[in-house]
Amino acid sequence: QLDDKSAFELILLPGFSTKTEISDVSGRGVGRDVVKSTINKLNGSIDIHSVLGEGTIFNIRVPLTLAILPTLMVGVGDYNYAIPLTAVQEIFDYDPTQSNRIDGRMMVRLRSRSIPLYFMREWLSPSTSYESLDHAKVVIVNIGTAMVGLIVDHVRGQEEVVIKPLGAKLQGVQGYAGATITGDGRIALILDLPGMMSRF
């Protein structure tokens, strides 16, 4: 007598298992129950959509204000920005003698690959007066299938941050995924790298 949605939710009950025999790693019916209880603690929800012979989709929603994101904190001009750590590949000192201009674009050679370089100050803080680039860093990031180098003034280090949604007037601005308050009490914008690249 259950509808499909209610039937699918049975697999989230503690002790419910579709295995006929238990093994060292599965069959006890505790895995999805732990997931559901954790999501409930975060005031989130989980929905299951399944079609026989086609596949199953689990939609998990948690409040944005509770999302914790590992980031690399960087300084651009007088401001701090957070780059999602999953996109960061490596960091090295900026050396203008190692970069070249190809078809009007700054490039750097990195292990047989030519990677485009972008000055973050030109995008994020164009009104900032240019300081010496002696201590500038290149942060190599993956954006989709592409690899690019972002030139920043300082690298502050890694920090896990709680994402705060932007206010109504700033929502929809490409390039920003949200904001956070850093450990020293300052506000930092969290960069949405694909959105930032398409915007600039």
Low-confidence residue ranges: none
Gyration radius (Cα, Å) is 23 Å
User: Strand tally, please?
Assistant: 13
Major sheet attributes: 6 strands, mixed
The outline comes out as elongated
- From N to C, what is the helix and strand string? HHEEEEEEEEHEEEEEH
Overall mean pLDDT stands at 86
Give, in spatial order, the strands making up the sheet with the most strands.
5-9-10-8-7-6
**Protein structure class:** mainly beta
Strand content: 35-45%
How far the N terminus sits from the C terminus, by CA atoms, comes to 55 Å
User: Approximately how much helix is present in the residues?
Assistant: 10-25%
Number of helices: 4
Describe the protein in words.
The protein has 200 residues and is mainly beta. The chain contains 4 helices and 13 strands. The chain has a 6-stranded mixed sheet with strand order 5-9-10-8-7-6. The protein starts with a helix and ends with a helix. 16% of the residues are buried.
Which helices and strands appear, and what pairs or packs with what?
Elements lengths: L3 H5 L22 H11 L3 E7 L3 E7 L6 E9 L2 E6 L3 E6 L5 E4 L2 E6 L2 E7 H5 L12 E7 L2 E7 L1 E9 L13 E6 L5 E5 L1 H7 L1
Parallel strand pairs: 4-13, 8-10
Antiparallel strand pairs: 1-2, 3-4, 3-11, 5-9, 6-7, 7-8, 9-10, 12-13
